[in-house]
Amino acid sequence: MSRRTLLPERLLIQKVRKNVAKNNNSSYEASSIKVLEGLDPVRKRPGMYVGSTSASGLHHLVWEVVDNSVDEAMAGYCTRIKVTVRPDNSICVEDNGRGIPVARHPQKRIPTLEVVLTVLHAGGKFDNDAYKVSGGLHGVGVSVVNALSKRLVARVKRDGGIYEMEFARGKTVRKMERVGKSKATGTSITFWPDDTIFESTIYDFDTLHDHLQETAFLNKNLKITLVDERELEPRVVEFCYSGGIVDFVRFLNEEKTILPGMDRNPVYISGSSAPDAPPDQKGEVEVALQWNTSFSGTVMSFANDIYTDEGGMHLEGFRSAITKTINDYARSHKLLKEKEANLTGDDIREGMTAVISVKLSDPQFEGQTKAKLGNSYMRTLTNKVVAQGMAEYLEEHPNQAKEIFKKANQAAKGRMAAQKARQATRRKGLLESAALPGKLADCSVRDAEMTELFIVEGDSAGGSAKMARDRSIQAVLPLRGKILNVERVQEHRALSSDTITSLITAIGTGIGPDFDIEKARYHKIVIMTDADVDGAHIRILLLTFFYRYMKPMIDAGYIYVAQPPLYQLKPKGKKNGKYLYTDEELALEVAKFEDSSKYTIQRYKGLGEMDPEQLWATTMEPKNRIMLRVTIDDAMAADRAVANLMGNQVEKRRTFIQTHAKDVRFLDI
Ligand code: 0RA
Q: The whole model's pTM is what?
């Protein structure tokens, strides 16, 4: 998810982490909170503070408030966080931390609670030795949430009392008052996102679920509850992981088969900088990893709980340590013969699931989406900690070490076979656009930005699509039969499949080390399959193919799913009917008639049942059609979905496809 831009300070409380709390005995006091600016800039340029005014920005409000509670947990004062979605789409975040201070702020002469919520960049001591998150939208402060909410109610239990205060669009509308007594402490923030700012103010359960679960994995023993009260029967989920990232790795591997002979428990390694390291070189490293039998790897890295989608120094250090220790072990134990080449990092990471979580005082986030950790000393530290921990693990677990080596060695063989296959196919020109597949009905325009490739199932649908299309900008590639499940075969096998090679050739980018998005022959690749279970299956296989071999195409937003209508409803005596795309739409339309003698319904089982004019008008004509853009928003969810669908657990796959065949949400669109 690209959700960060560089912001100078963490506002409310900086990301204070365990190591930090130790060095920093003085607690926050009202007087240490510095006042910088008012909230107008936030309402003027919300995108600068929460990334966007679309769904991602809307959800960001929740992450912001939750982050503050998590900070309380990290500082050792909070054990529970509860997030509730109310029926009116307001959000309530409650914690049992110390509570935001309510004492009068010495400079502002108003309650600190009010300062914290109405003043931008009012945070705890970011002016001296505090550890902070210097990048990201993370840590912009609850005042930003206040500014972007049409209403916000803060409730604090502290100093023996319960205090309440209310705001509207960042302005105080009810002064802080003591409304009761309590021996407990904690903060609850309820906010109603401003619908004049956000495109939509409807929260998505799955997005909240996945993010909060991830937060719980990264904060061992922290109990996070999510309650969705928008349905008749509230949905309640609770996350609390005593194993932290070890549980995270277990979870990521849940649908997969652990490498036989391996321990059920993931490998866990942790360490930190020397006690006498200078403050700007301090850090903590934690990793958990485990191998499964699949042919792809998943490595997720975090810095101060922020997902570093673009990797960075910690990831580099991790990778080189794993590659080196496994090669060293294989050499010294004669698993690798003298003449044999080293295993590559890719070989070793095939089937490896890993979570890396580092904590550091002053993280620098770089890269296109500010999701790449830039502090170079974290490479050295991560490398050192992981190399030492992994070497120890291998020495202590010789059987497991052998299994890991065997898996990587097979990957190496597969890689060499794939290289040969690629060379052979290249020699034959199979993946080059010069030899476009015979079945491809190409378009005449050559400017990729304007053109579209429709991938359809079978020759009959292919025939209709070819007749229906605008041949200047729309190309059609019919695929015969099922496409190979690329999750379950190695690349050289995939390259021996005609269907796969014709896809690669038609698209023009190549794959693997040869992949080049600049060579894409179309900027819209549209998967157009029948609206039945077979069609859903083919769509999922194609998505897996794109996910595994052409992920940048998904990231670039080039992959789409066409939405052909399911029904046509014709009122009696009328020539033209209405196309309907879902069962719900059909039910709504049918309800408008007195009885069933007043209309007829035609159900389209496949694209082949539509005549070309209908197919054009409903599904292919740019100005009328509905297409869904495929995006991978969340690496964790995507990987699990693909594993669920494509892994080797046939039963699970069948039920998943049956329940989700028509559910577009799982596509993460
Ligand atoms: C400033 C200072 C202190 C705590 C907090 C803010 C605080 C903020 C939030 C936001 C959500 N939950 C929160 N819990 C605490 C420290 C106060 C002290 O020293 O007692």
A: 0.75
Percent of the chain with pLDDT over 90: 57
Asked if 354 and 457 sit in the same domain, the reply is no
101 lines ligand 1 (CB under 6 A): yes
- For residue 136 and ligand 1, the question of a CB distance below 6 A is answered with no
Q: pLDDT class for 400, splitting at 50, 70, 90?
A: very high
Query: Same domain for 176 and 107?
Result: yes
Q: Which of 328, 366, 498, 534 is catalytic?
A: 534
Cβ-Cβ contacts under 8 Å for 492 (sequence gap 6 or more) = 414, 417, 418, 420, 421
Sheet bearing 91-95, strands edge to edge: 171-181, 161-168, 149-158, 186-193, 91-95, 80-85, 223-228, 235-239
Give the residue carrying structure tokens 């209405």: 578
pLDDT interval class at 536 (50, 70, 90): confident
pLDDT at residue 174, rounded to an integer? 97
CATH number at residue 506: 3.40.50.670
The answer as to whether 441 is a domain residue is yes
Mean pLDDT taken over the chain = 85
Instruction: Tell me if 7 is assigned to some domain.
Output: no
Does residue 613 form part of some domain? no
Tell me whether residue 457 is one of the annotated catalytic residues: yes
Q: What share of the chain is helix, strand, coil (3-state, %, to 5)?
A: 40, 20, 40
Whether 257 and 323 map to the same domain: the answer is yes
pLDDT top residue among 395 and 662: 395
* 525 within a domain of the structure (yes/no): yes
Can you give the residue range of the structural domain that contains 537?
A: 431-564+628-663
